[in-house]
Amino acid sequence: MLPSADDTSNLKEIEMQWAVKAMTHAEIYMNILKSRPAESIQLTPIDDELYKDFREEFPTLNIKVLDEKNDFKSEAAKRKWRNFMNKYEKRVADFSFGTLMRIDSQDDYTEENSMFTYRLQFLCIEIARLREGYNDKFYTKPS
Protein backbone atom coordinates (compact mmCIF):
# COMPACT_ATOMS: atom_id res chain seq x y z
CA MET A 1 0.00 0.00 0.00
CA LEU A 2 1.34 3.42 -0.91
CA PRO A 3 1.74 5.91 1.92
CA SER A 4 -0.70 8.77 2.23
CA ALA A 5 0.40 12.39 2.17
CA ASP A 6 0.17 12.40 5.97
CA ASP A 7 2.83 9.66 6.12
CA THR A 8 5.48 11.48 4.08
CA SER A 9 7.20 12.92 7.14
CA ASN A 10 7.69 9.35 8.37
CA LEU A 11 9.36 8.45 5.08
CA LYS A 12 11.80 11.35 5.48
CA GLU A 13 12.59 10.19 9.01
CA ILE A 14 13.19 6.64 7.81
CA GLU A 15 15.42 7.91 5.01
CA MET A 16 17.41 9.96 7.51
CA GLN A 17 17.75 6.95 9.83
CA TRP A 18 19.02 4.87 6.91
CA ALA A 19 21.54 7.57 5.97
CA VAL A 20 22.85 7.76 9.55
CA LYS A 21 23.14 3.97 9.74
CA ALA A 22 24.90 3.77 6.37
CA MET A 23 27.40 6.47 7.35
CA THR A 24 28.04 4.77 10.69
CA HIS A 25 28.71 1.50 8.88
CA ALA A 26 31.10 3.28 6.49
CA GLU A 27 32.99 4.91 9.37
CA ILE A 28 33.29 1.62 11.24
CA TYR A 29 34.52 -0.18 8.12
CA MET A 30 37.18 2.45 7.41
CA ASN A 31 38.32 2.27 11.05
CA ILE A 32 38.71 -1.50 10.66
CA LEU A 33 40.73 -1.05 7.45
CA LYS A 34 42.99 1.45 9.21
CA SER A 35 43.50 -0.66 12.32
CA ARG A 36 44.29 -4.12 10.94
CA PRO A 37 46.21 -5.66 8.04
CA ALA A 38 43.80 -6.44 5.20
CA GLU A 39 44.69 -10.13 5.14
CA SER A 40 43.52 -10.48 8.76
CA ILE A 41 40.05 -9.02 8.17
CA GLN A 42 37.11 -11.39 7.81
CA LEU A 43 33.71 -9.90 7.00
CA THR A 44 31.56 -13.06 7.13
CA PRO A 45 31.93 -16.69 8.18
CA ILE A 46 31.78 -17.62 4.48
CA ASP A 47 34.33 -15.17 3.02
CA ASP A 48 36.17 -17.93 1.13
CA GLU A 49 32.99 -19.14 -0.55
CA LEU A 50 31.78 -15.63 -1.38
CA TYR A 51 35.14 -14.69 -2.90
CA LYS A 52 35.37 -17.85 -5.01
CA ASP A 53 31.78 -17.60 -6.22
CA PHE A 54 32.04 -13.85 -6.88
CA ARG A 55 35.23 -14.19 -8.94
CA GLU A 56 33.76 -17.13 -10.90
CA GLU A 57 30.62 -15.14 -11.69
CA PHE A 58 32.31 -11.74 -12.18
CA PRO A 59 35.89 -12.59 -13.27
CA THR A 60 36.57 -9.32 -15.10
CA LEU A 61 34.78 -6.87 -12.80
CA ASN A 62 37.24 -4.09 -11.99
CA ILE A 63 37.10 -3.79 -8.22
CA LYS A 64 39.81 -1.15 -7.97
CA VAL A 65 37.52 1.52 -9.44
CA LEU A 66 33.89 0.50 -9.85
CA ASP A 67 31.83 1.35 -12.91
CA GLU A 68 28.48 2.00 -11.28
CA LYS A 69 26.55 2.51 -14.49
CA ASN A 70 27.72 -0.58 -16.38
CA ASP A 71 28.52 -3.05 -13.60
CA PHE A 72 25.63 -2.32 -11.23
CA LYS A 73 22.88 -0.18 -12.78
CA SER A 74 22.45 -1.54 -16.32
CA GLU A 75 19.56 -3.96 -16.85
CA ALA A 76 21.96 -6.83 -17.63
CA ALA A 77 24.06 -6.11 -14.53
CA LYS A 78 20.98 -5.87 -12.29
CA ARG A 79 19.74 -9.23 -13.58
CA LYS A 80 23.15 -10.88 -13.11
CA TRP A 81 23.56 -9.49 -9.58
CA ARG A 82 20.00 -10.45 -8.63
CA ASN A 83 20.57 -14.07 -9.69
CA PHE A 84 23.90 -14.15 -7.87
CA MET A 85 22.55 -12.59 -4.68
CA ASN A 86 19.49 -14.82 -4.42
CA LYS A 87 21.75 -17.81 -3.76
CA TYR A 88 22.74 -16.21 -0.46
CA GLU A 89 19.33 -15.02 0.74
CA LYS A 90 19.16 -17.50 3.61
CA ARG A 91 22.91 -17.62 4.30
CA VAL A 92 23.98 -13.98 4.63
CA ALA A 93 22.11 -11.87 7.15
CA ASP A 94 20.57 -8.72 5.71
CA PHE A 95 21.97 -9.62 2.27
CA SER A 96 19.67 -7.16 0.51
CA PHE A 97 19.96 -4.23 2.93
CA GLY A 98 21.28 -1.03 1.45
CA THR A 99 24.78 0.16 2.25
CA LEU A 100 27.43 2.51 0.96
CA MET A 101 30.46 1.33 -0.98
CA ARG A 102 33.52 3.24 -2.11
CA ILE A 103 33.77 3.60 -5.89
CA ASP A 104 37.56 4.05 -5.95
CA SER A 105 39.16 1.57 -3.57
CA GLN A 106 42.14 3.84 -3.01
CA ASP A 107 40.08 6.63 -1.45
CA ASP A 108 38.02 7.02 1.70
CA TYR A 109 34.26 7.46 1.72
CA THR A 110 33.20 10.85 0.37
CA GLU A 111 30.03 12.01 -1.33
CA GLU A 112 31.76 11.72 -4.72
CA ASN A 113 33.38 8.36 -3.93
CA SER A 114 30.34 6.51 -2.57
CA MET A 115 27.56 4.58 -4.20
CA PHE A 116 24.51 2.82 -2.84
CA THR A 117 24.65 -0.98 -3.08
CA TYR A 118 23.19 -4.05 -1.49
CA ARG A 119 25.02 -5.52 1.48
CA LEU A 120 25.96 -8.68 -0.42
CA GLN A 121 27.49 -6.62 -3.24
CA PHE A 122 29.48 -4.67 -0.65
CA LEU A 123 30.67 -7.90 0.98
CA CYS A 124 31.76 -9.51 -2.30
CA ILE A 125 33.59 -6.42 -3.56
CA GLU A 126 35.27 -5.69 -0.22
CA ILE A 127 36.31 -9.31 0.37
CA ALA A 128 37.89 -9.25 -3.09
CA ARG A 129 39.57 -5.90 -2.38
CA LEU A 130 40.97 -7.28 0.88
CA ARG A 131 42.34 -10.40 -0.83
CA GLU A 132 43.64 -8.69 -3.94
CA GLY A 133 45.54 -5.96 -2.10
CA TYR A 134 43.41 -2.93 -2.88
CA ASN A 135 42.82 -2.09 0.78
CA ASP A 136 46.42 -2.54 1.95
CA LYS A 137 47.20 1.18 1.84
CA PHE A 138 44.86 2.04 4.71
CA TYR A 139 46.61 0.08 7.45
CA THR A 140 49.50 1.81 9.15
CA LYS A 141 51.57 -0.33 11.48
CA PRO A 142 51.87 1.13 14.95
CA SER A 143 55.36 2.48 15.64
UniProtKB/TrEMBL annotation:
InterPro entries recorded: PBDC1-like_dom_sf, PBDC1_metazoa/fungi, Polysacc_synth_dom
Domain of life: Eukaryota
Domain Polysaccharide biosynthesis: 14-139
Xref: Gene3D superfamilies: yst0336 like domain
GO CC annotation, single: cytoplasm
Protein name: Polysaccharide biosynthesis domain-containing protein
